[in-house]
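Protein 1 of 2
SEQ + STRUCT:
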Amino acid sequence: MDEGRHGYPDLIRRTGELIEQLDRPPVVAIGGHGGSGKSTLALRLAGDLGVSRTQVVPTDQLYAAVDTRRAALFELQDWPEILDLLRRVRTGSRSRLRYRSRGYDGHEELVDEQMPAALIIEGIRVLRPETMPLIDLSVWIDLEPQVAGERAKARNRDQGDSAMEITLWDTKWIPEGVEYERLVRPQRLADIVLRPVDLI
């Protein structure tokens, strides 16, 4: 595990090496708490690799068909779909990136994109024992859940989210982030641990 000593340039270098070494797109997974900067990092990496933003896979577009406000810690995302997608990329069984997305509001659509040079997937619980065998390079953004949650609340207020949705950060999302970190210890699973200062 590289604890941010080389920051973003090291992430670019290691991803580039994997692209050259493998006969398929490497799977790069970026994890962190809500509000930690996962999406920003994923899109930055994608841009530097020539990957379009529509080829990045956010797990918040892969929700399970559940009541998102009542779902338990690992029930929120559609893990069978996520694992199947990663397996297909790893085996090179498809030349295109295809999966069915489902948003927080339940809206579904088919994603059909050219397979990118690297598959970048980002999400709050993407680093877990079940996914690690399917990931070539794992990144954890190390920001405390409470701090990340405050950033997320500010972002969501700017996006016009309701007071009820903002309250969920204090009653559900932040506490679940604390529990996830306690149970899974994603820092120990990650190949690279980055702090926000490493991304400047």
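Protein 2 of 2
SEQ + STRUCT:
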Amino acid sequence: MARVKITMPEHFTFRTNIPVRITDVNYGGHVGNDAILSIIHEARLHFLTAAGVKELDPGHTSLIMADAALVFKGEGFHGDVFTISVTATEFSAFGFELYYRITSDRDGRSFLIAEAKTGMLCFDYTVRKLARLPEGWEERLSQAK
């Protein structure tokens, strides 16, 4: 069976902490795969805010997710506080890639929970078409802390 592989960057510019909610836990007693995507969405908003970029900015350039890849590495549980490291790379005329590494410290050890990548495209909701990456975004996203 072919597996998804993500080549992760060596350095991440931004970190945020997100607690695992009981609603993130599935019938297996651990964080569900759907919850991981929601958690990286929240981390993305924290990252964009730190960069001074809005995901949805009516009348201006907004962002849409073109693709997502998730690789599960370990289990997360209710009560964990995930540390999500985020970085932006691979800028193009219309978008960029965001990479995420999710870890959790538990019982004096650090556990790798998941790695992910989302392809982000600039979008103009007024005309409902792709838009060019605004001037200054690459620098702001590359330096978000």
